[in-house]
Design brief:
The structure holds two protein chains of two kinds.
Chain A: E1 13-21, E2 26-35, E3 40-44, H1 51-58, E4 66-71, H2 76-86, E5 87-90, H3 102-110, H4 119-125, H5 141-152, E6 159-163, H6 171-186, E7 190-195, H7 198-204, E8 207-212, E9 215-220, H8 222-228, E10 233-238, H9 247-253, E11 258-260, E12 263-268, H10 271-284, E13 291-296, H11 299-307
Parallel strand pairs in A: 3-7, 3-8, 5-6, 6-7
Antiparallel strand pairs in A: 1-2, 1-4, 8-9, 10-12, 10-13, 11-12
Chain B: H1 2-18, H2 20-40, E1 50-54, H3 61-72, E2 76-80, H4 82-90, E3 96-101, E4 104-109, H5 114-135, H6 159-190, H7 192-197, H8 203-233, H9 241-263, H10 269-286, H11 298-303, H12 309-322, H13 330-350
Parallel strand pairs in B: 1-2, 1-3
Antiparallel strand pairs in B: 3-4
The chains are: A alpha/beta, B alpha/beta.
Chain lengths: ~325, ~350
């Protein structure tokens, strides 16, 4: 494995000018990122934003067209094996043999590394002790994902990469995965996680970057991103069925109104002043709305504001 | 490194033994084929030929003489009344029928069963000549003796002995195309290779473990099949074990490389299955696994030698059944070797992990 000296200070990950084009699409168009040691960093964006391609280049699975990647002070060109020994990776699909037992999978993957964590410790960490002798194929979706996280931790890694670990899971399974990610942070690991769930990013991430069309369009702490919006509140009018065209109403109200599926959204700095005027105008125009909500802006609104699109479009 | 390869091999083997379907197709199925076809065609000359004899209204001495002569020639004579014979003919079960016509006979040959009825008609005519000679009191005509021998002349071999090397070759082909080619396409498609690529495990260790495990399967299969052949049909290797090993190693190398090379042509397991079957079925049916291509056109008999299975089986049978040396089979070995080298190079150049 070579005797590469591994620097213990500096950022966990530093990326400069990362680019990758495929025959039909530019997947990553110049990405700069820096992730500090010990933080949970989120990479957010809709499907096709370039998150997974970015992650695959960082993990050494895809060669970049241009740009620099430095992980834990190492580069792929010089210290590929050293990086592989010190990172843990969970890919979008678990891709194990159907008939391998949970304990066997952990033992097998552990054997690929110079040092491996005890299998029983990993089983306890992801709460799969009573599934230790079950075949992989018999596990539920949430259990399979927990096993994937345990496999990503098998070598006691300094940095962990999680690619949409909770996609397709029910809320309870998602919460249990969040606990494992928080445990990783508590153990001092750096975590880079991609997701398209805004509440997940808000719950887990110290900092995050929002990607769209292969570029980072905003980055910072979740609170600072929301603060940057300068529109802390959103008033929502919900309709039964899809919402009508708000153009005429918007003109009458003198405020921008956005239509989102079954509701209108009116971003505002001052909901207290807007609300009476809004209700009065709606009454006069006979708008057939069902309910009114006032909520604080979320990362979802940050994304909407930056791209004009919803995250899950 | 040896330990890592061993661990990979052991895990592949363990997972394989949990796949009962794969175990059945690789171990039990060839044995079932050998036992089934071996017993069905045990006579060596194939099933007894039968002829329907339609009984005349009044039997005469010449009828009795014909029936006796047909029996002497090992024909199975089914004697039926006209109505019954006609019903049997109508059901399409009769290949050849002998009916009274005037003072003699005529024969009716089923156009769908010419392969069986044709030779039978010849034997009936021979029987009729014998019967006429006997009725005339002429001396019994002499016959040319026939003996059944294998091409190498070592031993009279039965159909099971012909089939056994065919099944060994078919096993190698299916392991190469499916256990190697298909499996690696699906590993690539499902991202198993990508999951390995983010670990420090060298990829060649993974492939080496896989290749060794397939070799072990091939070996185990061959041992089982040869043991059953010996125990049930008394089939033994007539050649040198060194030659046998050399032929088997060359064949295994050829068909595994074939699988690896083919796996680089497809992106999905579905498209691979289509490509693999394009090779598998013609190779299986036209290479002499179950039967020789004696009655096929000459160009086809030559054409199948372009593909590796036919020359491989010819050489394997020559060694195993006839105890021939490899020296006389240079061309066949060259064809198999060329396939091994070309597919190996294609596999090395084109094999993809992602």
């Amino acid at each position: 494995m070579g005797g590469t000296e591994v620097p213990m200070s500096g950022p966990a990950l530093r990326i400069r000018g990362l680019r990758k084009a495929f025959p039909k699409v530019v997947a990553v168009a110049g990405v700069d990122l820096e992730v500090a040691r010990g933080e949970v960093f989120g990479l957010l964006g809709p499907n096709g934003a370039g998150k997974t391609t970015t992650l695959e280049m960082i993990e050494g699975l895809t060669a970049p067209d241009a740009g620099e990647i430095e992980i834990l002070g190492c580069t792929w060109a010089r210290d590929g094996q050293a990086i592989r020994s010190r990172i843990g990776v969970q890919l979008q699909s678990t891709s194990l043999f159907n008939k391998i037992r949970v304990r066997e999978a952990l033992d097998l993957y552990g054997s690929y590394y110079p040092k491996a964590r005890p299998t029983d410790e990993l089983l306890a960490l992801v709460q799969l002790q009573d599934k230790a002798d079950a075949y992989h194929i018999t596990l539920s979706g949430g259990q399979q994902q927990r096993l994937a996280l345990a496999l990503a931790l098998v070598n006691d890694p300094d940095m962990v990469f999680l690619d949409e670990p909770t996609t397709g899971l029910d809320p309870q399974a998602r919460r249990s995965l969040w606990d494992i990610v928080r445990r990783m942070k508590a153990e001092g690991r750096t975590v880079l996680i991609t997701t398209h769930y805004m509440e997940e990013a808000e719950a887990l991430c110290d900092r995050l970057a929002i990607m769209d069309h292969g570029q980072v369009i905003a980055s910072g702490t979740p609170a600072s991103l929301i603060a940057q919006l300068a529109i802390p509140s959103v008033v929502e009018l919900t309709f039964e069925g899809s919402a009508p065209d708000p153009a005429a109403f918007s003109a009458r109200l003198g405020e921008p109104v956005e239509r989102r599926g079954e509701r209108w959204e009116i971003p505002t700095r001052d909901p207290k002043a807007l609300l009476p005027r809004l209700l009065e105008t709606a009454e006069i125009a006979a708008v057939p709305y069902q309910q009114v909500h006032v909520r604080r802006a979320t990362l979802e609104d940050v994304f909407l504001h930056q791209t004009g699109r919803s995250l899950r479009d | 490194m040896v330990k890592m390869v061993w661990r990979q091999f052991a895990m592949e083997w363990k997972l394989y033994t949990r796949d009962k379907g794969a175990m059945f197709w690789t171990f039990a199925f060839p044995v079932v084929m050998l036992l089934g076809f071996g017993f069905i065609f045990r006579g060596g000359g194939g099933p007894k030929l039968s002829v329907v004899y339609v009984e005349p209204a009044i039997s005469s001495p010449k009828d009795a003489a014909l029936c006796k002569a047909m029996g002497d020639l090992q024909l199975k004579v089914i004697r039926l009344a006209p109505a019954e014979a006609e019903a049997r003919w109508g059901r399409g079960e009769t290949a050849l029928e002998v009916l009274p016509a005037g003072s003699g006979y005529r024969m009716r040959l089923n156009s769908y069963l010419l392969a069986q009825g044709g030779p039978t008609a010849g034997l009936v005519n021979q029987a009729w000549m014998m019967a006429q000679a006997r009725l005339a009191g002429a001396p019994e005509p002499g016959r040319i003796p026939v003996s059944v021998e294998s091409p190498g002349g070592r031993k009279a071999s039965n159909y099971a002995a012909f089939l056994l090397p065919g099944l060994l070759g078919l096993n190698l082909l299916s392991i190469g195309l499916f256990s190697v080619g298909m499996v690696n396409v699906s590993y690539r498609e499902k991202g198993k290779f990508r999951r390995l690529a983010v670990t420090p495990l060298p990829k060649w260790v993974f492939l080496m473990g896989q290749v060794l495990q397939r070799l072990a399967i091939c070996l185990a299969q061959a041992v089982v099949l040869v043991a059953v052949g010996w125990a049930v049909f008394g089939i033994r290797n007539q050649g040198s074990y060194l030659d046998l090993t050399l032929v088997m190693v060359l064949g295994t190398a050829c068909f595994m490389s074939f699988g690896f090379a083919l796996s680089s042509l497809a992106d999905t397991a579905e498209s691979y299955a289509a490509i693999a079957n394009v090779f598998f079925f013609p190779l299986m049916l036209l290479s002499g696994v179950y039967f020789t291509l004696d009655s096929a056109p000459h160009w086809l008999q030559h054409a199948v030698w372009i593909l590796p299975l036919a020359p491989f089986l010819t050489t394997l049978r020559a060694v195993f059944n006839d105890g021939a040396s490899l020296a006389g089979h240079g061309l066949a070995l060259a064809v198999v070797g060329a396939w091994a080298v070309v597919t190996f190079l294609v596999a090395v150049r084109r094999f993809r992990w992602a």
